[in-house]
Design goal:
heterodimer, A: 288 residues, mainly alpha, MetI-like fold, 13 helices, 0% strand, B: 307 residues, two-stranded antiparallel sheet, 15 helices, 2 strands, 73% helix, disordered N terminus
Amino acid sequence: MSASVRARRARRHLLGGLGYHGFGIIASFFFLAPFIWAGLASLRSGSEAQTPPMPPWPQNGISFDSYETLDTFGSGIWQHTMNSFLVAAGTVVLTVVVSLLAGYGFSRYRFPLKNVMFVLIIATLMIPFQSILTPLFIILARLGLNNSLVGLMLVYVTLQLPFSVFMMRNAFDAVPREIEEAARIDGARDLKLLFKVLLPLVMPGVVTVAIFAFLNSWNEFMAALILLSENDKYTLPVLMTAVRAGRLGAINWGAVQAGVMVMTIPCLVVFLLLQRYYMRGLMAGAVK
Amino acid sequence: MSITTTAPVAELTRPRRRASLRQWQGVFYVAPAMALVTVFFIVPVLFTVWMSLHNWPLLGEPKWIGLDNYVRMFSDSRFFAALNFTAYYTLVATIAIFVLAFPLALFVERKRTGVSAYRTIFFLPVVVGLATASLLWVWLANVDAGLFGPVLRMFGITGRASNVLATFDSAFIVIVVMVVWKIVGFTMIILLTGLQAIPTDLTEAARIDGANRWQRFRRLTLPLMRRTLALALILSVTGSVLAFDQFYIMTSGGPQNRMISVVYYIFNQSFVSFQLGYGSALSIALLAILVALSVIQLRLLRVGDER
């Protein structure tokens, strides 16, 4: 009797597990399939690349034709990858430095209008940047930063600030003041104290801020489309609109697949390596 | 937060002036952030309001026209068509995302082997750009070199090669499916944080009291997740109202220009027709709509009067 009950329970457990993982695997397939399809299809040779991807893998051996075709657009794929990379790297560095300083200031000092300033920075989240692109375009032109990667970078840094300053202030709030006081007595002051003693303690927050800054600036499309006007300055997403528009009425789909992979792989690598920090940031944002 | 409660004795016995001078240093730490936010956000917002009161061509002198841009807006049928389409898209996309995100969140909340792998996989499309995802899917949906044509034919849904991006309804479905694929993992994680915040002894107690799974979900889980739901809803609605990349890249505004979203229309007015003043007025209208939508959603979910 009890043995049969146990057997039934074990069977139900097994069936439940099968159902669970069956659903999980099918769902996983739907989320992964577009990436796998594009990745495999991008390795097909030139003539194959224009046919439906059934099956997606190369029939005549692996070929980099699509990537070579992609290289003939704009100023070459290296140039545009570098543009994207420079903007993303610059955004990461500036965002980290600016939000580190601001987070420290908001956490540790008391000065007039402190709370007003903090709320002002956070409140920019409420206003979508899409609605201020026109004046940004004009202001950047007045500053001599139109059609410039530096100008685009400064805009991206500003867009990252509400989240980043909030993260960094919380990170500094979590550091006990005793550590700071001890370091102060040992003679560490101001910036030295901040970078030598406190930076290692808020490093997880810095990594979170850096990942979000990288992904958002690497992926951003609309501001880049509007603020960059010359071909050789285009970041990858803007370049890809030219590839997608095609030449002489014909679209080279191999080049589109190759471009999708060039844009996708860095995001996936960064996310998979630093997932813990990414999720931490997301959940911290969601809980607050 | 107050420094006086935690400052050590040494700090307090020092002359007051020196202490307050030291506090002033904080201004220097926050100065770079404030400068960026001022120049690249606050000034542009005020500038948008100013521009919206002008006839502002790209070249040449702006001319003050008062509220004329706003008056013009109310007789602009294409703007209302864009509003209409955006509302339709927001409704469909948000419902689709929530209908899928909730089961997925419940699925990845279970403590089973492999659950963290599922979480990661479902989340992967979120970290890719919307522009990238749009390019990927426009290829998949292409009639000559894409995947959907052959697959639909294989299942006998369509007879011959069908161009799914050529008609409004099928193109709209493709875009919604793409957006759900791209965003649902994000909503799933937000909902997951809400689910995990529910104390397990509460659900246990309900289970012992004989509440079945649906009753527990309806009477316990949903009410306790109100704040999380409000956040997920606002993020989803705001994102959909601001949609641009997918329509620009996938359909260029769609069959018969029927897929022009509000942001796309503002983009066209400002950067294709170069009517910067009118574009600014439309931006202010968009801003007002978004604020109103957020307030309505917070009211509906009664966030604030927590029991």
